Amino acid sequence: MSSYDVAVIGSGPGGYVAAIRCAQLGMKTAIVEKYATLGGTCLNVGCIPSKALLDSSHHYEDAIKHFDTHGIEIPGEVKVNLEKMISRKQAVVDQTTGGIDFLMKKNKIDVFQGIGSFKDATNINITKEDGKTETIEAKNTIIATGSKPSSLPFIKIDKERVITSTEALKLKEVPKHMIVIGGGVIGLELGQVYKRLGAEVTVVEYLDRIIPGMDGACSKELTKVLKKQKIKFALSHKVKSVERNGNEVVVKADNKKGEEVTFTGDYCLVAVGRHAYTDGLNLEAAGIKLEERGRVAVNEHLQTNVSNIYAIGDVIKGAMLAHKAEEEGTLVAEILAGQKPHIDYNLIPGVVYTWPEVAAVGKTEEQLKEAGVAYKVGQFPMRALGRARASMDIDGFVKILADKNTDEVLGVHMVGARVADLISEAVVAMEFRASAEDIARMSHAHPTYAEAVKEAALAATEDRALHI
Length: 468
Fold this sequence. Notes:
FAD/NAD(P)-binding domain; alpha/beta; 5-stranded parallel sheet
């Protein structure tokens, strides 16, 4: 039997980063993955492929809507080759997952393909596709099995017309009318992809606004922009049935008045969130306890109730974000090496990769109000930037929330072009507990989108923005 210092079950961003860091710190490491390719949901059917389709569809939309304004004339009709678009997406996925294979070899990490399950707290059975089983021994184990798409109890996902994000990444045709159940990140991103390609898209959301976990100003701005892009919204609608009749899908919901509303389309994307995935782990054999929603219970060191077993990423509490899982994987590896790492969960940014993008870190205005914190607001519109006008990306803003007494930055919320990259400036500033004035006094290159951060900081500092 092979014996390891650490075994990682699951090879998503949390799992493979944990394995790499353990190996870097001198531990003999194994990683167990049930699927044929490494990378988990993020690399195979999540972050990477969805961004590939978002970029491809964005190019198409630019070609048909904006090139002429830029003085670029294309003779003939611009057409979508969906098969080729999906093929390019898969090539990006294959290249990325192949990169993880390389990293495992480089760091001398043993890869086991099969379903990992606990025999006991220090032994893991690995069941291969052909049914054969082998067992490895691990002094410590990290559970990194991630999450799966959630549904509603009355919905039958047939993976053909009633689909999850996984199937939405490989459709063979552009829908005529895609009904999206859920106004969160996944539903909006994939809804925008197919809207750009020519589908009618209707988003049905139970709550009274989209991206409900983000600052209300971001929700309002993104709704306005997506409506301008002709995406339809049915907010405060409680879905009660989804029925497929041949190539037609009928969704029935009650609006806020209690009236029944019917939506008819040819595809229904169910995007109501994700849930922790622990199927097949045989946690009982190791004595591991779960908490509500089927998540693995952990302490502040991400240690389960069994001292040599840890859990990270989507399978535990907290935001289901690849970069959160990566930080947790690194943290556990360093704890096992005797170090004292730390994660500030308040400073893990969240991003929506629609266009314009939405990005945020820290507290929302609603959270500060609820907590009774005295704060001030500085906000600056993207349309006031020369760079935004030059690129025709004028939607959105940067909003900075700072402590009214100390001027410390408490939250930064952005809507606009490339704010997914821009939010890192705010993370760095807040990690060093910067004040709004600190950011306002930093030189920002001109012309850039980043100038909006400086201007918002100036607006929060005695309301002295320069360009509005």
